[in-house]
Amino acid sequence: MHAAEPTCEAAAEATGPEVGSEGARDFTAFGRALGAQSVELKRYAARVVRRGEDPDELVQEALARAWRSRASYDEGGSLSGWLKRTLLHALFDLRRRRASQPEDLGDLDRTMPAAARSVEDTSAAREQIARALLPLSAAERALLLAFHGRGESTVEIAARLGQPEGTVRSALHRARRRLAKEDSDAD
Questions:
Q1: CATH number, domain 116-186
Q2: Fewest CB atoms less than 10 Å from the CB: which of 66, 98, 133, 171?
Q3: d(CA 16, CA 60)
Q4: Is the pTM above the cut of 0.70?
Q5: Domain segments of the chain: what residues?
Q6: Are 45 and 87 in contact (CB under 8 A)?
Q7: How large is the C-alpha radius of gyration of the chain?
Q8: Would you say domain 8-100 falls under CATH 1.10.1740?
Q9: Plot region of 52 (φ>0 → left; ψ -120 to 50 → alpha; else → beta)
Q10: What is the pLDDT of residues 84-133, one digit of tens each?
C-alpha cells in the first residue's frame, strides 16, 4: 500500500471499540482480515476495471464500504466473496455516477476535422462495422458489441449471461480472432 493510504488496522483503531473490550477485539480482527484480503482484492479489481478506471481507488472504496457495513458480514460466509461483491457494487455505482455526469470533451471537437464529425461519416463507419461483423455468428456479434460497443466488462457480461467469466473471456478471444482472420482473408 502507499504511505498515504490508511490501513484497515489504523481505521479500526481510529474508530474505537464498539461496546466493551470484546467489541474492540472484533474491530481489530476484522481490520486484520480486511488487510489480509487487500492483495487478492487488488488483483480482482485490476481484472474488472476498464481503461481509465483506477483499481486502487476501487479497492479503497470497497474496503471502506466493507468496514462501514461490517455488521452485515455473515461470519460463516466467505470474506473474499463478500469483499468481491462489495467491490463490484462500488464499481457499478462509480460507473452509474460517471454515466450520469456529462463528459467534458474539452478541445476534442475543435481538433477533430469537420468531415469526421459529419453524420455521413458516422453512418458509413457503422455500415463498415456491420459488414465486418456479418461473417460472425449472432452470439459472437452480440459479445463483441456488448464488450466493445457498450463497454460492458467481462464480469458484467458473464453475470448477464449466467456464465463463468473465463468462458466469456474465451468466447470474446475467439470472436476477435475470427474477426481478424476474416479481415485478413478479405485483404
A1: 1.10.10.10
A2: 98
A3: 20
A4: no
A5: 8-100, 116-186
A6: yes
A7: 22
A8: yes
A9: left
A10: 999 999 888 888 887 776 544 444 444 445 555 565 566 776 777 777 77
